[in-house]
Specification:
With about 750 residues, this protein is of the alpha+beta class. Helices cover about 35% and strands about 10% of the residues.
């Protein structure tokens, strides 16, 4: 059969299996279903029905066809193909075929106030045992229960849960993925550098503490990510769907963070986000993770032809800062907003700005540093406090033990009000993750998201130096706060009658400087794929930069901001901003050294203290404070590429594209994801079939003939993205091009070394 790996070639025929084990019952059932789908598309055809179906579903996915248009195509093929064709007649029938491979989801009804799930012993209940709300939707006119056409009642809210065990088993049932699940143990280079979570202190510490788990390299380490998104593009209606996504970290770096290897675990319904009650929705997943830790599941490894007991553990969570509070239980608002500093968060309420500011970074400096005693450059006080102590999982558990059993609900009558003032901390709940036996032993349980921190810091900087109306951190209230604190008298507002005049600060750009700053980005040209077209986000007339994507903030902060501000701001302002840029550049490297991270951890303290000397207290929101902890988290958890939200945000965008029925967004996403997941699974058993995840990149150049030049720099393969333009270089441009070629040409390098 063209394009299909027979079951025998995948797991070995009975004669070949004499050196291996027979697959377990679950694996046999799966391979049997694959073999049943191996039948030809029609009598005499060389292509299997499954191959054709996967190709058609791939076209539907790439072209974003509607279900109706796909039905029309199948009906046309049914008419023109020979009699006896096995192709399904509708998209619904197509899904039934691939769903038989064992990947599906469960529907679990939820109380409308997020009090409880209607599952296990509560599966037959009609009312919430906590708040008394009805399980079913009611007609607003006559208060009768709504029913479907088939007579079944309609639930108010439904969680869609995608069981984890079969999805982990499938990773080992194909040779294409099974061998890669041992990469971290067999192929990883252990040279003291961190390129993967397996190189991190967190991973190695977990191995030392739980040797029974680590002795089997095929046991899966997972990361959990969650965030909400608005499913309706052009709607003012507030609606938030929260997917819960799992990342298998056993895979090598080039596969680990690919969307095709992510596992959708739960789909938490809208219209409101779950808030702290997200623990209610996580119950099925936590129960399954506990079973996978304590009992495991029999799994067949196709690459070694062995059955083994598969276990799994959760390493950490990945989330933006508000979701950090929902998952951890520590409120990320108020005077103790920093979850790392915990009770020792250094903050101050600004009387006029009515917001918290997080300064006091001198306390992180060594005890004899000269800045600790300097009053005039900072907030008018000496700093004698030591830095906050890092808390272990046991310390956190001791703080939250009294919150165990608190009801998590949105019903105001049943919700337990927690006073942070009386408690002396910011805990709202004891997180459900502490039900995992190993959770308190983890070195890093929740990650600070570098992506959103970069975004917020860049916006703070640019909006302030450009004095953007309504967005700048420098305004009348901020200057009055300076006056109230009795610091920086040169920036205090000047009263002229009934009006207040604000002295120009050193960090504020003049109108001419704003124009030059915006002109730099307007004329900017970068390599394809480096960022979006930033010039389109620049309004030269109004001197505004808006409409940037998250990745653009990353590129601007790390690479372009130092170039944009050079010559426009004084050294005292420019220097810490460039240091901040270099900090994030070093932090975001794909390969990390612990010694380098320790250096930037010390440097960021100096940088933030320099910023305190320049910018107003209102500038220092909690996002500007969080870089203090990022280098330490990288030392513990490894490269940030495995612990930030970029890949997760891309998956959220893909899930949003699956919505076909705007009245049922969660159902649309669940059905579309299952079809996509099964298509990806089938592609692992098919030869030479393009799928959405195996397509060549947009700028793939390997098929283009190399230019046969005399030197190496002209022998690279490539192609033009558009029509060529002839250009005559002036002497200056010619000299720059000449120098560039000489510096980047392999043949010239020996001569350059001789001149050193």
């Amino acid at each position: 059969m063209d394009g299909f790996y027979r079951s025998g070639s995948e797991i070995g025929s009975s004669s070949e299996n004499k050196h291996g084990e027979e697959p377990n019952d679950e694996a046999k059932k799966f391979y049997r279903l694959l073999k049943d789908s191996e039948q030809p598309t029609y009598p005499g055809c060389d292509t299997s029905k499954l191959s054709v179906l996967v190709k058609l579903l791939h076209i539907k996915s790439i072209g974003r066809w509607s279900n109706d248009s796909f039905d029309m195509l199948l009906q046309l093929l049914k008419q023109i193909l020979p009699i006896g064709s096995n192709l399904p007649e509708s998209y619904y029938d197509s899904k039934k075929i691939i769903k038989d491979l064992g990947l599906s989801y469960q529907k679990i009804d939820v109380c409308k106030n997020d009090c409880m799930l209607y599952w296990k012993e509560e599966d037959k209940s009609n009312m919430c045992k906590i708040c008394g709300a009805s399980r079913w939707k009611e007609n607003s006119h006559n208060e009768e229960t709504k029913v479907r056409n088939n007579g079944k009642k309609l639930a108010v809210k439904t969680l869609r849960y995608f069981p984890l065990k079969p999805r982990l088993q499938r990773l080992f049932m194909s040779k294409k993925t099974a061998s890669f699940m041992r990469w971290h143990h067999e192929k990883r280079l252990d040279d003291g550098l961190m390129r993967h979570p397996a190189d991190s202190m967190a991973w190695k510490s977990f191995d030392d503490l739980h040797k029974d788990f680590s002795i089997e390299p095929r046991n899966v380490r997972l990361g959990l990510a969650s965030d909400g998104f608005q499913p309706f593009t052009h709607s003012k209606k507030s609606y938030s769907i929260w997917p819960v996504i799992l990342i298998p970290y056993n895979l090598p770096p080039w596969m680990c963070m690919k969307e095709s290897n992510f596992i959708l675990s739960s789909l938490i319904p809208g219209p409101e986000g779950p808030g702290d009650a997200i623990d209610v929705y996580l119950q099925p997943l936590i129960e399954e993770l506990k079973e996978l830790w304590e009992v495991g599941i029999e799994t067949f490894d196709a690459s070694t032809r062995q059955n083994f007991k598969l276990h799994a553990s959760l390493l950490w969570t990945i989330n933006d800062f508000p979701a950090y509070g929902n998952l951890s239980g520590w409120s990320t608002k108020g005077k103790m907003a920093c979850p790392c500093c915990n009770k020792d968060t250094c903050s101050m309420r600004l009387a006029n700005g009515k917001k918290q500011c997080y300064m006091g970074h001198r306390r992180y400096l060594h005890s004899n540093h000269k800045w600790r005693k300097n009053k005039s450059l900072f907030d008018g006080t000496k700093e004698v406090r030591p830095p906050p102590l890092s808390l272990s999982g046991g310390d956190v558990l001791a703080q939250v033990n009294d919150l165990e059993g608190n009801i998590l609900t949105k019903d105001v009558k049943r919700k337990v009000k927690i006073s942070h003032e009386n408690r002396g901390d910011n805990w709202n709940k004891k997180s459900i993750f502490f039900e995992l036996p190993y959770w308190s032993s983890l070195l890093l349980r929740h990650n600070l998201d570098v992506m959103h921190i970069e975004k917020n810091i860049f916006e703070n900087i640019v909006k302030t130096i450009m004095n953007t109306k309504g967005k700048t951190k420098d305004n009348v209230q901020a200057r009055l706060d300076l006056e109230a604190l009795k610091i920086r008298p040169d920036l205090h507002p000047i009263r002229k009658g009934d009006k207040l005049e604000l002295p120009i600060a050193s960090y504020t750009l003049s109108a001419e400087e704003k124009h030059l700053f915006c002109l730099f980005f307007k004329q900017l040209r970068v390599s394809d794929g480096f960022s979006s077209n930033i010039s389109q986000s620049v309004n030269l007339k109004e001197h505004k930069i808006s409409g940037l994507k998250s990745h653009d903030f990353h590129v601007l902060l790390q690479h372009l901001l130092p170039l944009g501000i050079r010559g426009l701001l004084p050294k005292a302002v420019c220097e810490p901003l460039i240091e901040l840029s270099l900090f994030f550049t070093s932090l975001g490297a794909k390969t990390l050294k612990v010694s380098e991270l320790q250096k930037i951890e010390s440097q960021i303290l100096i940088t933030l203290c320099k910023l305190e000397q320049v910018f107003l207290p209102s500038f220092f929101d909690v996002m500007v404070h969080l870089p203090v902890h990022l280098a330490k988290e990288a030392i513990i958890g490894g490269p940030v590429q495995y612990r930030w939200m970029y890949a997760i945000e891309r998956m959220l965008y893909e899930l949003k594209q699956l919505i076909r029925n705007m009245a049922r967004p969660e159902g649309s996403i669940a059905e579309g994801y299952i079809a996509k997941e099964c298509m990806t699974l089938c592609s692992r058993y098919l030869k030479d079939i393009e799928t959405k995840f195996s397509r060549l990149e947009r700028n793939y150049d390997s098929d283009f003939q190399k230019y046969k030049g005399e030197i190496s720099i002209f022998s690279q393969c490539g192609r033009a993205l558009g029509a060529g333009i002839s250009r005559i270089l002036d002497d200056d441009a010619w000299e720059k091009a000449h120098i560039y070629i000489l510096k980047n040409c392999d043949e010239v390098q020996p001569f350059l070394e001789l001149t050193k």
